[in-house]
User: Which sequence fits this backbone?
């Protein structure tokens, strides 16, 4: 049986092979020249070791992180699907530039391969039609390389019977692609302020100076890890663990209630300005406790869905109180600096406690 690699289009793989080291680490600091040009035009600098390597293998495409571990792998012969989304930059500042996100996913993981995500720059007016707008933090690849890789991916996708995105111009002139500039993305360790970090997942980093792991994507990553841990639990353990979640949720909600009552008392005693900072911190504390409680409830629902309705009944009163607290936080007249943060928390709480 003739494989994909026997097709004449597979010749493009040979052209791409020498350019297999493609991923950049984010720059340590802002520089006058575009880091994109430095990295893609002149290759990685000595002080900018790559984030990882995209390797073109005979049988597929693999990404190794900077520790040399192969973290994702697409096999040409095993059917996979493609998901595209885009993040257009502000036209007044960045002209006609968008980030194009590409997620390749094996249709059957058992047949080999793991999802592989990457991102490139593309002219906004040449994007395929109807892409959802989403900012992803996948590793970048050079648009000129992406164009060549895309021609090969299209062959694979059509052979595997996967849908190809419609419209758009995927054959943009190299000169135009070479002129696109990325936003300068820097992750700063919240623990030690170092910018020497390694990306572990989308928007999650590990600090190379102090070892701290965090980032805006950390919550999602932890959630995903917890979900996997739940799936591995035996049923008895799952039910027991769900009970603990309800207990913990109740404890947190009651604790939030206590703080909330104190907060009400402060506010009605007047003397607003003086106590404002203290109150805003208390409000934050309440929000955190309620959010954590909701996370426990959500997890309990996953662990033991059958008991969910019954277990929720005794929590109704506390949840109603939490919703009232959120409304109160929203209506409070805090200074601008804290108001925006509280507003988001308040809205999140109202939304979360209204569901179900
Ligand atoms: Zn650090």
Assistant:
């Amino acid at each position: 049986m003739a494989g994909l690699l026997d097709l004449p289009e597979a010749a493009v793989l040979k052209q791409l092979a020498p350019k297999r080291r493609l991923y950049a680490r984010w720059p340590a600091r802002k520089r006058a020249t575009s880091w994109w040009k430095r990295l893609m035009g002149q290759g990685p600098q000595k002080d900018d070791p790559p984030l990882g390597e995209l390797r073109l293998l005979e049988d597929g495409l693999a990404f190794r992180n900077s520790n040399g571990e192969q973290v994702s792998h697409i096999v040409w012969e095993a059917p996979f699907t493609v998901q595209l989304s885009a993040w257009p930059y502000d036209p007044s500042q960045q002209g006609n530039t968008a980030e194009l996100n590409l997620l390749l996913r094996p249709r059957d993981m058992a047949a080999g391969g793991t999802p592989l995500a990457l991102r490139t720059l593309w002219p906004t007016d040449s994007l395929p039609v109807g892409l959802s707008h989403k900012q992803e933090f996948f590793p970048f690849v050079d648009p000129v390389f992406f164009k060549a890789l895309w021609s090969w991916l299209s062959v694979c996708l059509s052979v595997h019977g996967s849908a190809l995105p419609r419209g758009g111009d995927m054959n943009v002139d190299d000169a135009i692609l070479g002129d696109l500039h990325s936003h300068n993305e820097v992750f700063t360790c919240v623990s030690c302020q170092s910018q020497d970090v390694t990306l572990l997942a989308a928007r999650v980093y590990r600090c190379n100076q102090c070892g701290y792991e965090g980032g805006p994507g950390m919550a999602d990553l932890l959630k995903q890890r917890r979900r996997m841990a739940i799936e591995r639990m035996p049923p008895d353990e799952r039910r027991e663990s769900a009970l603990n979640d309800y207990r913990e949720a109740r404890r947190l909600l009651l604790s939030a209630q206590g703080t909330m009552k104190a907060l009400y008392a402060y506010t009605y005693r007047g003397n607003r300005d003086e106590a404002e900072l203290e109150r805003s911190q208390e409000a934050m504390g309440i929000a955190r406790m309620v959010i954590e409680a909701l996370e426990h409830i959500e997890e309990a629902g996953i662990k033991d869905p059958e008991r969910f309705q019954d277990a929720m009944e005794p929590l109704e009163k506390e949840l109603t109180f939490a919703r009232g607290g959120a409304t109160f936080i929203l209506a409070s007249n805090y200074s601008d600096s804290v108001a925006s943060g509280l507003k988001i928390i308040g809205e999140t709480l109202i939304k979360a406690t209204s569901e179900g």
About this structure: Confidence is low (pLDDT under 50) at residues 24-49. The chain has three domains: 4-185, 187-231, 233-354. The longest helix spans residues 235-268.
